[in-house]
Write a structure and sequence with these properties.
It is built from seven helices and two strands; from the N terminus they run αααααβαβα. By secondary structure, the chain is an all-alpha fold. It has one domain (3-212): Helix Hairpins, CATH 1.10.287. The chain has a two-stranded antiparallel sheet with strand order 1-2. Helix 1 packs across helix 5 (114-141), helix 4 runs antiparallel to helix 5 (114-141) and helix 5 (114-141) packs across helix 6. The two termini are 22 Å apart. The relative contact order is 0.11.
Length: 213
């Protein structure tokens, strides 16, 4: 395997590990400052590794990720509303661009191997992360946009949970979108997740069958 493909594979493995930690391993810890710091550290790692995995000749992705990381930490520790919005917008822009870039790269790939499957899995998880940011922003704008179980104070973990329940169309019903924008974004994310799975599976299988002939 060429060195640049080996490095890409390694970066995608690290990215997947960080995403899995962000999504699954941090939420069981009690809410508080320690968990918030852990989320911020892992989230920053996702920015850096995602930018490295997608980097070509330009440092454009590193610039966006650096801005997003700085704003994320300022927002978390100084609780400034203005920086919270800037951090959310920069994170949304960054993940959207990363997802689009990875999908283009997968579609243009002539081979189907571990690297392509890794990137396809990472794109799916990044869609879930992107959705969690959207829902968090919606809830910040309108605290009544979602109905949470009685006594639950919405945290980052709750929006990550809701995003992945939505994208996988499980729909447990413990967190319910109430406002129109929350409902619309929930529908959009669930449809996007299903379309992505259908399209990417068809694409990868088609390429694999073409190669094997």
């Amino acid at each position: 395997m060429p060195k640049h493909l080996f490095n890409r594979k390694k970066q995608n493995i690290i990215l997947l590990v960080l995403i899995l930690v962000y999504v699954f391993l941090l939420s069981p810890f009690p809410p508080g400052e320690a968990r918030q710091v852990a989320y911020s550290i892992v989230f920053s790692g996702i920015f850096v590794v995602a930018a490295s995995a997608i980097k070509k000749k330009s440092n454009f992705y590193f610039y966006i990720s650096s801005i997003a990381i700085i704003l994320e930490w300022i927002s978390d520790f100084y609780k400034l509303t203005f920086t919270h919005w800037l951090a959310a917008v920069s994170a949304l822009l960054f993940f959207f661009l990363i997802i689009v870039r990875m999908m283009i790269r997968i579609s243009r790939s002539k081979n189907v191997g571990q690297l392509e499957f890794l990137e396809a899995v990472n794109v799916y998880f990044l869609l879930g992360v992107l959705g969690s940011i959207f829902f968090s922003v919606i809830n910040s704008i309108s605290p009544a946009a979602f109905h949470f179980p009685e006594g639950v104070i919405a945290t980052r973990a709750d929006f990550i949970y809701y995003s992945f329940v939505t994208i996988s169309t499980l729909g447990y019903g413990d967190i319910i979108p109430v406002s129109s924008i929350a409902k619309n974004m929930s529908i959009m994310l669930s449809i996007s997740g299903q379309l992505y799975l259908a399209m990417i599976v068809a694409m990868l299988v088609g390429k694999y069958l073409t190669k094997s002939k």
